[in-house]
Protein backbone atom coordinates (compact mmCIF):
# COMPACT_ATOMS: atom_id res chain seq x y z
CA UNK A 1 0.00 0.00 0.00
CA UNK A 2 1.31 3.47 -0.78
CA UNK A 3 1.18 6.24 1.82
CA UNK A 4 -1.47 8.08 -0.19
CA UNK A 5 -4.02 5.26 -0.30
CA UNK A 6 -6.52 5.64 2.49
CA UNK A 7 -7.73 2.05 2.66
CA UNK A 8 -5.25 -0.77 3.10
CA UNK A 9 -5.25 -3.31 0.28
CA UNK A 10 -7.24 -6.46 1.01
CA UNK A 11 -7.16 -9.96 -0.47
CA UNK A 12 -9.45 -10.15 -3.48
CA UNK A 13 -11.16 -13.45 -4.21
CA UNK A 14 -12.98 -13.34 -7.55
CA UNK A 15 -13.72 -17.06 -7.85
CA UNK A 16 -14.04 -20.06 -5.61
CA UNK A 17 -10.58 -21.62 -5.11
CA UNK A 18 -9.42 -23.01 -7.40
CA UNK A 19 -10.94 -21.04 -10.26
CA UNK A 20 -11.29 -22.68 -13.72
CA UNK A 21 -7.82 -21.79 -15.07
CA UNK A 22 -6.16 -22.85 -11.83
CA UNK A 23 -8.17 -26.08 -11.76
CA UNK A 24 -6.92 -26.92 -15.26
CA UNK A 25 -3.27 -26.32 -14.26
CA UNK A 26 -3.75 -28.33 -11.06
CA UNK A 27 -5.15 -31.26 -13.09
CA UNK A 28 -2.23 -31.15 -15.59
CA UNK A 29 0.29 -30.72 -12.78
CA UNK A 30 -1.14 -33.80 -11.09
CA UNK A 31 -0.78 -35.76 -14.30
CA UNK A 32 2.79 -34.83 -15.20
CA UNK A 33 4.77 -33.71 -12.17
CA UNK A 34 6.39 -35.76 -9.45
CA UNK A 35 4.08 -37.66 -7.12
CA UNK A 36 6.17 -36.38 -4.20
CA UNK A 37 4.90 -32.77 -4.42
CA UNK A 38 2.46 -31.99 -1.60
CA UNK A 39 0.05 -29.33 -2.94
CA UNK A 40 -1.66 -28.55 0.39
CA UNK A 41 -3.62 -25.57 -1.00
CA UNK A 42 -5.48 -25.20 -4.34
CA UNK A 43 -3.63 -22.04 -5.37
CA UNK A 44 -1.77 -21.55 -8.66
CA UNK A 45 0.33 -18.38 -8.46
CA UNK A 46 0.56 -16.43 -11.69
CA UNK A 47 2.37 -13.27 -10.61
CA UNK A 48 3.28 -11.34 -7.52
CA UNK A 49 3.83 -7.82 -6.30
CA UNK A 50 5.31 -7.09 -2.90
CA UNK A 51 3.47 -9.19 -0.32
CA UNK A 52 0.64 -10.04 -2.73
CA UNK A 53 0.29 -13.06 -5.01
CA UNK A 54 -2.30 -13.33 -7.75
CA UNK A 55 -3.39 -16.67 -9.17
CA UNK A 56 -4.23 -17.75 -12.70
CA UNK A 57 -7.87 -16.66 -12.20
CA UNK A 58 -7.09 -13.22 -10.79
CA UNK A 59 -7.54 -14.07 -7.10
CA UNK A 60 -5.12 -12.05 -4.97
CA UNK A 61 -3.83 -13.36 -1.65
CA UNK A 62 -1.76 -11.82 1.13
CA UNK A 63 1.46 -13.80 1.40
CA UNK A 64 2.39 -14.72 4.98
CA UNK A 65 4.77 -17.53 4.01
CA UNK A 66 7.05 -16.08 1.32
CA UNK A 67 7.66 -19.37 -0.49
CA UNK A 68 8.88 -20.83 2.83
CA UNK A 69 10.79 -17.81 4.12
CA UNK A 70 12.47 -17.10 0.78
CA UNK A 71 11.19 -13.90 -0.84
CA UNK A 72 12.94 -11.49 1.53
CA UNK A 73 12.20 -8.42 -0.61
CA UNK A 74 8.74 -9.65 -1.62
CA UNK A 75 7.65 -10.59 -5.12
CA UNK A 76 9.18 -8.81 -8.10
CA UNK A 77 10.89 -6.13 -6.04
CA UNK A 78 12.00 -3.44 -8.54
CA UNK A 79 15.52 -3.24 -7.09
CA UNK A 80 15.96 -7.02 -7.33
CA UNK A 81 14.38 -7.17 -10.80
CA UNK A 82 16.70 -4.42 -12.06
CA UNK A 83 19.78 -6.16 -10.69
CA UNK A 84 18.78 -9.44 -12.35
CA UNK A 85 17.98 -7.75 -15.66
CA UNK A 86 21.32 -5.95 -15.73
CA UNK A 87 23.31 -9.06 -14.89
CA UNK A 88 21.50 -11.37 -17.28
CA UNK A 89 22.55 -9.22 -20.23
CA UNK A 90 26.23 -9.73 -19.33
CA UNK A 91 26.21 -13.51 -19.03
CA UNK A 92 24.17 -16.17 -17.29
CA UNK A 93 26.90 -18.63 -16.44
CA UNK A 94 30.65 -19.08 -16.50
CA UNK A 95 31.30 -21.55 -13.62
CA UNK A 96 32.63 -20.22 -10.37
CA UNK A 97 34.45 -23.47 -9.67
CA UNK A 98 36.88 -22.52 -12.47
CA UNK A 99 36.77 -18.71 -12.86
CA UNK A 100 36.57 -16.00 -10.19
CA UNK A 101 34.03 -13.26 -10.85
CA UNK A 102 33.67 -9.82 -9.32
CA UNK A 103 30.01 -10.30 -8.47
CA UNK A 104 30.60 -13.43 -6.36
CA UNK A 105 33.82 -12.12 -4.82
CA UNK A 106 32.09 -8.95 -3.63
CA UNK A 107 29.06 -10.98 -2.49
CA UNK A 108 31.35 -13.14 -0.35
CA UNK A 109 32.96 -9.99 1.08
CA UNK A 110 29.54 -8.56 1.95
CA UNK A 111 28.32 -11.75 3.63
CA UNK A 112 31.54 -12.13 5.57
CA UNK A 113 31.34 -8.57 6.86
CA UNK A 114 28.39 -9.78 8.93
CA UNK A 115 30.32 -12.58 10.66
CA UNK A 116 33.96 -11.56 10.90
CA UNK A 117 34.11 -10.01 14.31
CA UNK A 118 37.05 -8.48 16.16
CA UNK A 119 39.01 -10.89 18.33
CA UNK A 120 40.56 -9.81 21.64
CA UNK A 121 43.62 -7.83 20.55
CA UNK A 122 41.83 -6.23 17.64
CA UNK A 123 42.20 -8.79 14.86
CA UNK A 124 39.09 -9.85 12.99
CA UNK A 125 38.77 -13.56 12.47
CA UNK A 126 38.92 -14.44 8.73
CA UNK A 127 36.16 -16.52 7.17
CA UNK A 128 35.63 -17.94 3.67
CA UNK A 129 32.62 -18.76 1.48
CA UNK A 130 31.62 -21.70 -0.69
CA UNK A 131 28.59 -21.03 -2.94
CA UNK A 132 25.98 -23.65 -3.89
CA UNK A 133 22.41 -23.60 -5.16
CA UNK A 134 20.18 -24.86 -2.35
CA UNK A 135 20.04 -25.22 1.39
CA UNK A 136 20.64 -28.96 1.20
CA UNK A 137 23.78 -28.36 -0.86
CA UNK A 138 25.13 -25.96 1.75
CA UNK A 139 24.45 -28.59 4.42
CA UNK A 140 26.18 -31.31 2.34
CA UNK A 141 29.18 -29.02 1.98
CA UNK A 142 29.22 -28.46 5.75
CA UNK A 143 29.16 -32.22 6.43
CA UNK A 144 32.01 -32.82 3.98
CA UNK A 145 34.10 -29.94 5.29
CA UNK A 146 33.58 -30.96 8.93
CA UNK A 147 34.72 -34.52 8.19
CA UNK A 148 37.59 -33.44 5.96
CA UNK A 149 38.86 -30.83 8.39
CA UNK A 150 38.64 -32.88 11.59
CA UNK A 151 39.40 -36.34 10.19
CA UNK A 152 36.41 -37.54 12.28
CA UNK A 153 33.17 -39.08 11.01
CA UNK A 154 30.29 -38.63 13.43
CA UNK A 155 27.76 -35.78 13.23
CA UNK A 156 25.26 -34.85 15.95
CA UNK A 157 22.01 -33.20 14.92
CA UNK A 158 18.78 -32.36 16.74
CA UNK A 159 15.30 -33.83 16.85
CA UNK A 160 12.72 -31.73 15.04
CA UNK A 161 15.39 -30.31 12.73
CA UNK A 162 15.19 -29.93 8.98
CA UNK A 163 18.35 -29.74 6.90
CA UNK A 164 17.19 -30.72 3.42
CA UNK A 165 16.44 -33.73 1.24
CA UNK A 166 19.75 -34.92 -0.19
CA UNK A 167 21.24 -38.00 1.45
CA UNK A 168 23.45 -36.31 4.02
CA UNK A 169 20.86 -33.66 4.76
CA UNK A 170 17.93 -36.07 5.26
CA UNK A 171 20.08 -38.13 7.56
CA UNK A 172 20.63 -35.05 9.72
CA UNK A 173 16.95 -34.08 9.50
CA UNK A 174 14.97 -35.04 12.58
CA UNK A 175 11.50 -33.65 11.91
CA UNK A 176 9.44 -36.28 10.06
CA UNK A 177 9.97 -39.94 9.19
CA UNK A 178 8.33 -39.46 5.77
CA UNK A 179 11.58 -37.86 4.58
CA UNK A 180 13.46 -41.08 5.33
CA UNK A 181 11.00 -43.95 4.87
CA UNK A 182 12.05 -46.22 2.05
CA UNK A 183 15.18 -44.23 1.24
CA UNK A 184 17.75 -46.02 3.38
CA UNK A 185 20.48 -46.77 4.03
CA UNK A 186 21.26 -43.18 4.97
CA UNK A 187 24.57 -41.68 6.04
CA UNK A 188 26.21 -43.71 8.81
CA UNK A 189 27.50 -42.13 12.03
CA UNK A 190 24.74 -39.62 12.76
CA UNK A 191 23.00 -39.15 16.14
CA UNK A 192 20.05 -36.97 17.13
CA UNK A 193 19.61 -35.23 20.47
CA UNK A 194 16.57 -33.26 21.72
CA UNK A 195 16.18 -29.58 20.87
CA UNK A 196 15.60 -27.38 23.92
CA UNK A 197 12.05 -26.22 23.28
CA UNK A 198 11.06 -24.03 26.24
CA UNK A 199 7.34 -24.64 25.54
CA UNK A 200 7.77 -28.41 25.59
CA UNK A 201 10.97 -28.97 27.55
CA UNK A 202 12.57 -32.35 26.76
CA UNK A 203 14.19 -34.89 29.08
CA UNK A 204 11.96 -34.07 32.05
CA UNK A 205 13.41 -30.55 32.26
CA UNK A 206 11.78 -27.14 32.72
CA UNK A 207 11.94 -24.07 30.44
CA UNK A 208 14.76 -22.77 32.63
CA UNK A 209 16.77 -26.02 32.71
CA UNK A 210 16.12 -27.47 29.22
CA UNK A 211 19.32 -26.09 27.66
CA UNK A 212 21.50 -27.65 30.35
CA UNK A 213 19.48 -30.87 30.13
CA UNK A 214 20.34 -31.21 26.42
CA UNK A 215 24.01 -30.46 27.10
CA UNK A 216 24.04 -33.06 29.91
CA UNK A 217 22.42 -35.54 27.53
CA UNK A 218 25.15 -35.03 24.93
CA UNK A 219 27.82 -35.39 27.62
CA UNK A 220 26.22 -38.63 28.75
CA UNK A 221 26.51 -39.92 25.16
CA UNK A 222 30.22 -39.05 25.28
CA UNK A 223 30.63 -41.11 28.44
CA UNK A 224 28.79 -44.27 27.48
CA UNK A 225 28.02 -44.46 23.77
CA UNK A 226 29.89 -42.14 21.47
CA UNK A 227 33.57 -41.17 21.81
CA UNK A 228 33.67 -37.36 21.67
CA UNK A 229 36.93 -37.52 19.72
CA UNK A 230 35.08 -39.24 16.86
CA UNK A 231 32.53 -36.41 16.55
CA UNK A 232 33.29 -34.08 13.66
CA UNK A 233 30.43 -31.63 14.17
CA UNK A 234 27.25 -30.65 15.91
CA UNK A 235 24.77 -29.05 13.52
CA UNK A 236 21.88 -27.02 14.89
CA UNK A 237 19.36 -24.45 13.75
CA UNK A 238 19.91 -21.49 16.11
CA UNK A 239 16.13 -21.03 15.87
CA UNK A 240 14.38 -24.19 14.72
CA UNK A 241 12.27 -23.75 11.54
CA UNK A 242 10.34 -26.76 10.21
CA UNK A 243 10.29 -28.25 13.72
CA UNK A 244 7.94 -25.50 14.89
CA UNK A 245 9.59 -22.06 14.76
CA UNK A 246 11.21 -22.54 18.16
CA UNK A 247 13.53 -20.07 19.92
CA UNK A 248 15.86 -21.89 22.32
CA UNK A 249 16.73 -20.49 25.76
CA UNK A 250 19.49 -17.86 25.74
CA UNK A 251 22.04 -20.16 27.40
CA UNK A 252 21.74 -23.05 24.91
CA UNK A 253 24.03 -22.01 22.06
CA UNK A 254 26.79 -20.57 24.32
CA UNK A 255 26.77 -23.85 26.29
CA UNK A 256 26.91 -25.85 23.06
CA UNK A 257 29.86 -23.71 21.95
CA UNK A 258 31.67 -24.49 25.20
CA UNK A 259 31.01 -28.20 24.79
CA UNK A 260 32.31 -28.16 21.22
CA UNK A 261 35.45 -26.24 22.25
CA UNK A 262 36.10 -28.74 25.00
CA UNK A 263 36.11 -31.65 22.55
CA UNK A 264 37.44 -30.11 19.32
CA UNK A 265 34.03 -30.47 17.62
CA UNK A 266 32.94 -28.13 14.80
CA UNK A 267 29.79 -26.14 15.59
CA UNK A 268 27.61 -25.62 12.50
CA UNK A 269 24.68 -23.21 12.56
CA UNK A 270 22.08 -23.92 9.89
CA UNK A 271 20.68 -20.45 9.16
CA UNK A 272 18.91 -21.51 5.95
CA UNK A 273 15.43 -20.66 7.26
CA UNK A 274 16.00 -18.18 10.12
CA UNK A 275 18.89 -16.26 8.56
CA UNK A 276 19.12 -13.27 6.23
CA UNK A 277 17.49 -10.64 8.42
CA UNK A 278 14.26 -12.52 9.10
CA UNK A 279 14.65 -12.42 12.89
CA UNK A 280 15.63 -8.74 12.90
CA UNK A 281 19.36 -9.50 12.83
CA UNK A 282 21.28 -10.74 9.81
CA UNK A 283 21.69 -14.20 11.37
CA UNK A 284 19.48 -15.64 14.08
CA UNK A 285 22.48 -16.78 16.16
CA UNK A 286 23.37 -13.11 16.59
CA UNK A 287 20.59 -12.87 19.19
CA UNK A 288 22.92 -14.92 21.38
CA UNK A 289 26.52 -14.22 22.40
CA UNK A 290 28.10 -16.98 20.37
CA UNK A 291 29.90 -17.75 17.16
CA UNK A 292 29.92 -21.05 15.23
CA UNK A 293 32.67 -22.51 13.04
CA UNK A 294 30.41 -22.76 9.98
CA UNK A 295 27.14 -21.22 8.82
CA UNK A 296 24.81 -22.50 6.11
CA UNK A 297 22.66 -20.00 4.20
CA UNK A 298 20.10 -20.26 1.38
CA UNK A 299 16.38 -19.41 1.07
CA UNK A 300 16.17 -15.64 1.76
CA UNK A 301 19.64 -14.80 0.51
CA UNK A 302 18.55 -13.68 -2.98
CA UNK A 303 14.78 -13.11 -2.59
CA UNK A 304 13.98 -16.24 -4.58
CA UNK A 305 16.84 -16.69 -7.04
CA UNK A 306 18.63 -19.98 -6.29
CA UNK A 307 21.90 -19.58 -4.42
CA UNK A 308 23.26 -20.91 -1.14
CA UNK A 309 26.41 -20.44 0.85
CA UNK A 310 28.58 -22.25 3.33
CA UNK A 311 30.53 -19.77 5.42
CA UNK A 312 33.43 -21.20 7.43
CA UNK A 313 36.30 -19.86 9.48
CA UNK A 314 39.47 -19.68 7.41
CA UNK A 315 41.14 -21.96 9.94
CA UNK A 316 38.43 -24.55 9.20
CA UNK A 317 38.01 -24.24 5.42
CA UNK A 318 41.06 -26.37 4.75
CA UNK A 319 39.78 -28.82 2.12
CA UNK A 320 42.23 -29.10 -0.78
CA UNK A 321 41.92 -27.59 -4.26
CA UNK A 322 39.41 -29.46 -6.42
CA UNK A 323 37.93 -31.47 -3.54
CA UNK A 324 34.54 -29.75 -3.69
CA UNK A 325 32.70 -27.63 -6.26
CA UNK A 326 29.45 -27.05 -8.13
CA UNK A 327 28.66 -26.30 -11.78
CA UNK A 328 25.93 -23.77 -11.06
CA UNK A 329 26.85 -22.70 -7.52
CA UNK A 330 27.33 -18.93 -7.20
CA UNK A 331 25.50 -18.23 -10.45
CA UNK A 332 26.05 -14.55 -11.38
CA UNK A 333 22.35 -13.74 -11.88
CA UNK A 334 21.50 -15.20 -8.48
CA UNK A 335 24.48 -13.34 -7.03
CA UNK A 336 23.12 -10.07 -8.45
CA UNK A 337 19.78 -10.75 -6.75
CA UNK A 338 21.64 -11.48 -3.52
CA UNK A 339 23.49 -8.13 -3.75
CA UNK A 340 20.17 -6.33 -4.29
CA UNK A 341 18.61 -8.19 -1.36
CA UNK A 342 21.56 -7.24 0.87
CA UNK A 343 21.18 -3.60 -0.25
CA UNK A 344 17.65 -3.66 1.15
CA UNK A 345 18.49 -5.69 4.26
CA UNK A 346 21.38 -3.41 5.19
CA UNK A 347 19.45 -0.22 4.35
CA UNK A 348 21.81 0.81 1.57
CA UNK A 349 18.66 0.99 -0.56
CA UNK A 350 15.49 1.95 1.31
CA UNK A 351 12.11 0.36 0.74
CA UNK A 352 9.26 2.86 1.20
CA UNK A 353 7.47 2.42 4.54
CA UNK A 354 10.07 0.02 5.92
CA UNK A 355 12.20 2.31 8.08
CA UNK A 356 15.98 2.25 7.81
CA UNK A 357 16.29 -1.29 6.47
CA UNK A 358 14.36 -4.51 5.95
CA UNK A 359 16.07 -5.92 9.03
CA UNK A 360 14.69 -3.02 11.08
CA UNK A 361 11.30 -3.58 9.51
CA UNK A 362 11.36 -7.29 10.38
CA UNK A 363 12.09 -6.38 14.00
CA UNK A 364 9.43 -3.69 14.13
CA UNK A 365 6.55 -5.33 12.24
CA UNK A 366 7.43 -8.77 13.65
CA UNK A 367 7.33 -7.34 17.18
CA UNK A 368 3.92 -5.86 16.44
CA UNK A 369 2.54 -9.19 15.12
CA UNK A 370 3.97 -11.08 18.10
CA UNK A 371 2.37 -8.72 20.59
CA UNK A 372 -1.01 -8.76 18.79
CA UNK A 373 -1.02 -12.57 18.61
CA UNK A 374 -0.10 -12.75 22.29
CA UNK A 375 -3.10 -10.53 23.08
CA UNK A 376 -5.30 -12.98 21.12
CA UNK A 377 -4.17 -15.83 23.37
CA UNK A 378 -6.41 -14.41 26.12
CA UNK A 379 -9.49 -14.83 23.88
CA UNK A 380 -8.53 -18.11 22.25
CA UNK A 381 -7.13 -20.69 24.70
CA UNK A 382 -6.24 -23.04 21.82
CA UNK A 383 -3.40 -20.65 20.96
CA UNK A 384 -1.04 -22.41 23.33
CA UNK A 385 2.17 -20.60 22.45
CA UNK A 386 3.15 -17.56 20.41
CA UNK A 387 6.91 -17.33 19.91
CA UNK A 388 9.60 -16.03 17.65
CA UNK A 389 11.84 -13.11 16.76
CA UNK A 390 11.14 -10.55 14.06
CA UNK A 391 9.18 -12.07 11.18
CA UNK A 392 10.02 -15.62 12.28
CA UNK A 393 6.89 -16.39 14.29
CA UNK A 394 5.30 -19.66 15.37
CA UNK A 395 1.77 -20.11 16.62
CA UNK A 396 1.18 -23.44 18.38
CA UNK A 397 -2.34 -24.88 18.65
CA UNK A 398 -3.17 -26.94 21.72
CA UNK A 399 -6.11 -29.03 22.87
CA UNK A 400 -7.80 -28.57 26.27
CA UNK A 401 -5.17 -30.89 27.81
CA UNK A 402 -2.33 -28.74 26.45
CA UNK A 403 -1.25 -31.40 23.92
CA UNK A 404 -0.41 -30.23 20.37
CA UNK A 405 -3.62 -30.10 18.28
CA UNK A 406 -2.56 -30.69 14.69
CA UNK A 407 -6.12 -31.13 13.45
CA UNK A 408 -7.19 -27.75 14.76
CA UNK A 409 -4.06 -26.20 13.26
CA UNK A 410 -4.94 -27.72 9.88
CA UNK A 411 -8.47 -26.31 10.07
CA UNK A 412 -7.15 -22.88 11.02
CA UNK A 413 -4.58 -22.94 8.25
CA UNK A 414 -7.16 -23.86 5.57
CA UNK A 415 -9.70 -21.34 6.87
CA UNK A 416 -7.10 -18.54 6.69
CA UNK A 417 -6.19 -19.64 3.20
CA UNK A 418 -9.84 -19.53 2.14
CA UNK A 419 -10.03 -15.95 3.41
CA UNK A 420 -7.05 -14.94 1.29
CA UNK A 421 -4.11 -15.39 3.68
CA UNK A 422 -1.37 -17.69 2.40
CA UNK A 423 0.22 -19.47 5.33
CA UNK A 424 2.09 -22.69 6.03
CA UNK A 425 2.22 -25.20 8.84
CA UNK A 426 5.29 -26.56 10.58
CA UNK A 427 6.01 -28.81 13.55
CA UNK A 428 3.23 -30.92 14.97
CA UNK A 429 0.63 -28.17 15.44
CA UNK A 430 2.19 -24.86 14.46
CA UNK A 431 1.41 -22.21 11.85
CA UNK A 432 4.43 -20.21 10.84
CA UNK A 433 4.24 -16.50 10.08
CA UNK A 434 7.13 -15.88 7.69
CA UNK A 435 6.10 -13.12 5.28
CA UNK A 436 8.41 -11.09 3.05
CA UNK A 437 10.40 -8.62 5.16
CA UNK A 438 8.80 -5.66 3.37
CA UNK A 439 5.48 -6.34 5.14
CA UNK A 440 4.11 -3.03 6.45
CA UNK A 441 2.21 -2.58 9.68
CA UNK A 442 -1.02 -2.04 7.70
CA UNK A 443 -0.50 -5.28 5.78
CA UNK A 444 0.27 -7.03 9.06
CA UNK A 445 -3.02 -5.69 10.45
CA UNK A 446 -4.87 -7.10 7.43
CA UNK A 447 -3.36 -10.55 8.06
CA UNK A 448 -4.03 -10.33 11.80
CA UNK A 449 -7.69 -9.44 11.15
CA UNK A 450 -8.04 -12.61 9.03
CA UNK A 451 -6.42 -14.63 11.78
CA UNK A 452 -8.72 -13.17 14.45
CA UNK A 453 -11.78 -13.85 12.29
CA UNK A 454 -10.61 -17.44 11.77
CA UNK A 455 -9.98 -18.00 15.48
CA UNK A 456 -13.40 -16.54 16.34
CA UNK A 457 -15.07 -19.01 13.97
CA UNK A 458 -13.04 -21.94 15.33
CA UNK A 459 -13.93 -20.89 18.83
CA UNK A 460 -17.65 -20.74 17.96
CA UNK A 461 -17.42 -24.21 16.36
CA UNK A 462 -15.89 -25.58 19.53
CA UNK A 463 -19.00 -24.31 21.29
C1 LIG B 1 17.04 -25.00 8.24
C2 LIG B 1 16.99 -25.56 6.86
N1 LIG B 1 18.10 -26.12 6.34
C3 LIG B 1 18.12 -26.63 5.09
C4 LIG B 1 16.98 -26.60 4.30
C5 LIG B 1 17.02 -27.19 2.91
O1 LIG B 1 16.95 -26.17 1.97
P1 LIG B 1 16.61 -26.52 0.43
O2 LIG B 1 15.17 -26.93 0.40
O3 LIG B 1 16.91 -25.24 -0.29
O4 LIG B 1 17.52 -27.61 0.02
C6 LIG B 1 15.81 -26.03 4.80
C7 LIG B 1 14.59 -25.99 3.97
O5 LIG B 1 13.49 -25.81 4.44
C8 LIG B 1 15.81 -25.50 6.12
O6 LIG B 1 14.71 -24.96 6.65
From TrEMBL:
Q: Which Pfam family, giving just one, matches this sequence?
A: Aminotran_3
Question: Which cofactor(s) are needed, names only?
Answer: pyridoxal 5'-phosphate
Q: Which InterPro entries match?
A: Aminotrans_3, Aminotrans_3_PPA_site, Class-III_PLP-dep_AT, PyrdxlP-dep_Trfase, PyrdxlP-dep_Trfase_major, PyrdxlP-dep_Trfase_small
Any GO molecular function = identical protein binding
Q: Keywords in UniProt for this one? A: Aminotransferase, Pyridoxal phosphate, Transferase
Task: Please report which protein family the annotation says this sequence is part of.
Answer: Belongs to the class-III pyridoxal-phosphate-dependent aminotransferase family.
This protein is called 4-aminobutyrate aminotransferase
Species the sequence originates in = Deinococcus reticulitermitis
Amino acid sequence: MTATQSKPRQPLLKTALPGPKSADIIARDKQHLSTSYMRPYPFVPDHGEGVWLTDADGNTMLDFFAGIAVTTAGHAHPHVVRAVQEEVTKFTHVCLTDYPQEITTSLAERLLAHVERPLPGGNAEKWRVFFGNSGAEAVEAAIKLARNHTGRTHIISTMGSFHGRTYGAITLTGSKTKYKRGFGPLLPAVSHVPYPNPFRPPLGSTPETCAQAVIDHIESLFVGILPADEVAAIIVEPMQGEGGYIVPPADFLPKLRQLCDQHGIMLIFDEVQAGMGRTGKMFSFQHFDVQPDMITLAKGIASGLPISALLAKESVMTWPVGSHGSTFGGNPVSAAAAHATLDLLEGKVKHPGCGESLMDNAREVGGFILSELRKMQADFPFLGDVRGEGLFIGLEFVGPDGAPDGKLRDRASMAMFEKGLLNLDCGEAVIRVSPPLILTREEAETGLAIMRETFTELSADQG
